[in-house]
Amino acid sequence: MSGARRWVRWAIPVAAIPVIVLLAYGFRTDPRAIPTPLVGKPAAAFSLKTFDGPEISLAGLRGRVVVVNFWASWCYPACYEEAPVLERGWRAYKDRGVMLVGINIQDKEEPARQFLARFNHTFPNAPDPTGRVSVDYGVYGVPETFFIDPAGRIRAKHVGAVTDEIFSANVDRLLAERP
Amino acid sequence: MIPEIGYAATIVAFGLALYGSVTSAVAGRTGRRTLVASSERAAVGVLVLVTACMLLLIYAFLTFDFSVRYVAINTNRGTPFYYRITGLWGALEGSIILWTWMLALYTLIVVVQYRRRHPEFYPWVLSAMMGIAAFFLLVMTIPAPPFERLTPVPPDGRGLNPLLQDSGMITHPVALYLGFTGFTVPFAFALAALATGRIGDEWMTITRRWTVIAWYFLALGLLIGGWWSYHVLGWGGYWAWDPVENAAFMPWLTGTALLHSVMIQERRRMLKIWNLTLVILTFSLTIFGTFLTRSGIIGSVHAFTQGSIGAFFLGFLALVLLTSFSLLAWRMERLKAQGELDSIFSRESAFLLNNVFLVAATFTVFFGTIFPLLSEAVRGEKVSVGAPFFNLVNIPLFLGLLILMGVGPLIAWRRASADNLRRNFLVPTAVGVAAAVLARALGIANSLVLLCIAAVIFVTGTIVLDFLRAARARRRSGDGWAAATLGLLRRQNRRYGGFVVHLGVLVVALGVAGSNAWSLHTETTLARGESVELGGYRLRFDGLRGSEESNHFKVTGTFTISNGVGSRDVLYPAKKFYAQEQNPIAYVDYRLGLIEDVYLVLGDFARDGSQATIKLQVNRMVSWLWLGGLVLTLGTGLAILPDRRKTA
Q1: Per residue in A7-24, is it b (16+ CB within 10 Å) or e — as a string?
Q2: Is the dihedral of CA B430, B433, B437, B443 positive or negative?
Q3: On chain B, which terminus has fewer CB atoms closer than 10 Å, C or N?
């Protein structure tokens, strides 16, 4: 067998390598980075009746940094993982003018109330009975979290459970912009 | 306690599989019989432990043990009994258990069947199969542990994805996995052949039946998947070139190529390297398919990224590809063909062309599936590849394959004589062309459909002609028609089993062509009492009612359908609202028929029931797909019966 032929037979195993490299590249892309055209746009207004009774409206929060979190009681495990994070974030930032609003979607009232009681949530939470708000915000799945600046523009969106780092990084950034 | 026992069993099984794999490889090198016996016991142990894991997880499902994360995500208290069991393979972790269990089962069958018959191969086969089992057990141990605990324990589970609560989804994964894991056996024998250097025809003869079985289950899985897609998803079709579908289709294509090309090696001692390559490719594609659907690297609405599982599968895929192809390269000198291609007009070249078409189709599907990734890597832009691309390239290939299906089995080996061609193909070709002309006269204008009809009739003609001739020959020796037919099927079961499988594929092909060419659909909004007409049917909207079901709220529409003949029927399409789903799930209602199905989907509706938006379809010849599946089953059964010719 000539030298050239000897090399040729290794062509198949060698050819497999670029395919594997390409597939490995796939890990670098983030399938959860679902782009939203809403970033930079004014956040859609809403006015909802909270579980505790009073109305909450986005218009009334102009001038403050607002975090809007969409959740549901059946959303295991992501909503359960982020629930304590949200409460911690709320307690850490509420005195600095940050507002956190939970919006409960595609859910039933009873389990939603149980969820709030279990995690002892003290920030306002409201059901979205008509699904209107989640449509306006283009919610893809739960949980999703929107970070809104004092001018009422959506500045960031996070899909999946929020961590302490993600929560404070986004809120700190928006707070720092305030004059 | 139960989950901990399950997890411990997984770890022990992993250890045993690894041990068995290593000891039988050592036995393969040294020929020490006691080591083989030891790894056989390990194989038994693996099967027992994996069975235990599966039963424990089923038990956790039945007892609503929501402390197990997998149970909490895939069932809830309202889930009906059957779906609590099938919830086992409703998502990643459980399907890995099912896969591993089937693999362990196949391994034990291999042990029982071959331990005394192929002393050189056997230890290597066992080593390969247990090595693969060890990989799956590793996946069960680290990236996808089915018994992982969930804290805090939720009061109720999320529930099985409503789309999966269907009979098609109970059987589809089982059939598919039997196919996927089935290809492990031929792959293990191919590796054994390369490892021992005994690369004659022995490995191929042993694994033919295994390949047929794996191929059949894969085909069945694809068809059941089509049936599920058709009657559950509510879009009225059965195939969409989705990456997940493609993942199962690719190994089926290479498996089909393999089934045909081994015949050339049997008869003419050709294509040895090629056949080994096909076995390796087919097995690699089953792993690639799992990687693709579970890694989330290809954009899909369901992007089920599952932590590090994708990396595990990619690593394994790399290991499989590099090891087996390097082994092949190392042994290549011994794999020189003895036969040569004598003529273009020969059975060899028909089979070769069949392989070229099948591999080209595989490549097309592969390329189309990973193209979004390629595009993102090269141009930084996400694109999606849709059905037009796949159809454009594949339809001509499949038409070519249909025609070859008629030519291949009847053309002579080595070099066909003019007499051979005339005798076998003149009448079928004439009948095929006549059928296309007739269809054209009846108003079918689509040239692809006409070609498909011509091809199907041509192939059917060749099969019928061949069978009649053979039966007539037997009759001359004194049998009646029935006895002659039965005798042929029994004595030449491999040949005629193959023919029956071909007939099944033809029936499926007609279903595909017919449903694409003649189906009708309309979308409209009806007020109560109003009607719409389509394809000779008149559909009247009679009203809506809501009902609270065990785990969802259901809005059912009542529609009366009648045709000109005066027969009448009532259809009840519905929408189901599950608490855990964003969007309501459509429940399609349909009347199936041999020629056409009436297919009705309820879309939007007014809350007071005064009007409803519907999608009405008259789908032609879709039933032929399911019918083709039945014929395929008969043919496969016939083909894998023990070969009678040798004993006759």
Answers
A1: eebeebbeebeebbeebe
A2: positive
A3: N
Angle between helices B184-196 and B122-141 (to 10 degrees): 130
Number of residues in chain B: 648
B401 contacts B357 by C-beta, under 8 angstroms: yes
Asked if residue A77 has a cis previous peptide bond (ω within 30° of 0), the answer is yes
Q: Report d(CA B516, CA B449) in Å as an integer.
A: 9
Mutation pick from B323, B326, B335 vs chain A, by most beta carbons of A within 10 Å, is B326
Are B277 and A12 in contact (CB < 8 Å)? Answer: yes
pTM of the model: 0.84
Cβ neighbours of residue B514 closer than 8 Å, sequence gap 6 or more = B449, B620, B621, B624
Q: Which two tokens stand for residue B609?
A: 């029931």
Phi, psi of B86 (to 5 degrees): -75, -15
**Helix locations, B233-346, DSSP H:** 243-268, 272-295, 309-330
A76/B318 Cβ within 8 A? no
How far is the C-alpha of B219 from the C-alpha of B629, rounded, in Å?
Answer: 8
Q: What is the pLDDT of residues B156-170, one digit of tens each?
A: 887 787 778 888 888
> Which residues in B98-233 belong to E strands, given as ranges?
none
Cα angle B59, B64, B69; round to 5 = 90
Are B574 and B594 spatial neighbours (Cβ–Cβ below 8 Å)?
no
Structure tokens, A94: 């509420």
d(CA A112, CA B56): 32
Question: B383 touching A, CB under 8 A?
Answer: no
More confident residue, A8 or B262: B262
Low-confidence ranges of chain B (pLDDT < 50): 300-305, 646-648
The closest alpha carbon to B630, from B516, B493, B501, belongs to B501
For residue B626, give both structure tokens. Answer: 């399911």
What is A51-107 written as a DSSP string? Answer: TTS-EEESGGGTTSEEEEEEE-TT-TTHHHHHHHHHHHHHHHHGGGTEEEEEEE-S-
Residue A141 confidence (pLDDT) above 80: no
Contact status of B332 with chain A (Cβ, < 8 Å):
yes
Cα separation, B519 vs B534, whole angstroms: 11
The region that residue B346 occupies, defined by phi over 0 for left and psi between -120 and 50 for alpha, beta otherwise, is beta
Cα B22 versus chain centre, distance: 32
Residue B582, CA distances (Å) to A33, B162, B445, B529, B606 in order: 19, 11, 43, 31, 19
Q: Which residues are registered as beta bridge partners of B602?
A: B614
